[in-house]
């Protein structure tokens, strides 16, 4: 990259961080005008109570695995003697976002490496969405012997995202929040003011019956836990898209399925391009009419694409589900 290209990208990065900061302030002012202070925090207390849908025994049993930096919570479902399917959720979700896929695949299928080891598995089918997808891209490249097949939903590989961020202004402005989240304190305050935005994000107001009010409460419950907002936003801070930062792109050796909801308001479809340069066996499935949260917005279509991909080699013997 030439000096002037790098300088342009640095200036664009600084502008977008400033733009994100101003936009967050406008959102805070708008909410202060629209709602009274009491309404801003209305109903928050109830989100500290675990919603009933998160206690559904049909979705599996809960556990924790100790890693060097703390505990990782997981939910396990399906026969323990079958191969492993590992789901990794994204922002702002928790394990409950995979409920449609757990119910679909639990009859067939039984930190990352720590979870695999604790559950007695040497490899898995790895499924990731949003930031869980970014992590899954990295994990499949760094530990190819641990991933049999890779399924990614609306998540670009991080070096691909960085490249597009500075060459496609449409994606640059779609990603304004990624730049804004580099600022300390204010993003947590803005997001925590009122969680009603989640209904719009998940298209609940547009007749999406696959995401209920109780499902939204499950997301709110996760975000209301002590330190949760900072922990989730810190993913963006730790993996920022600064033009001065370079990411190593590893070859993906396992068969890979990239599922993309075409109505994603955060990530442009252009991000589906270019992965075939370093993914040896790539299948791209575009689902029209689906938003960013494609696994919840169009679960039947997603499950169908996943099953077709998984059975592509004629094998149906897949078992444990971890999310």
UniProtKB/TrEMBL annotation:
SUPFAM superfamilies: alpha/beta-Hydrolases. Keywords: Membrane, Transmembrane, Transmembrane helix. One of its GO terms (molecular function) is epoxide hydrolase activity. Coiled coil: none annotated. It comes from the Eukaryota. The keyword Membrane applies. The chain crosses the membrane at residues 12-33. Pfam families: Abhydrolase_1. The keyword Chaperone does not apply. InterPro entries: AB_hydrolase_1, AB_hydrolase_fold. Residues 113-293 form the AB hydrolase-1 domain. This is AB hydrolase-1 domain-containing protein.
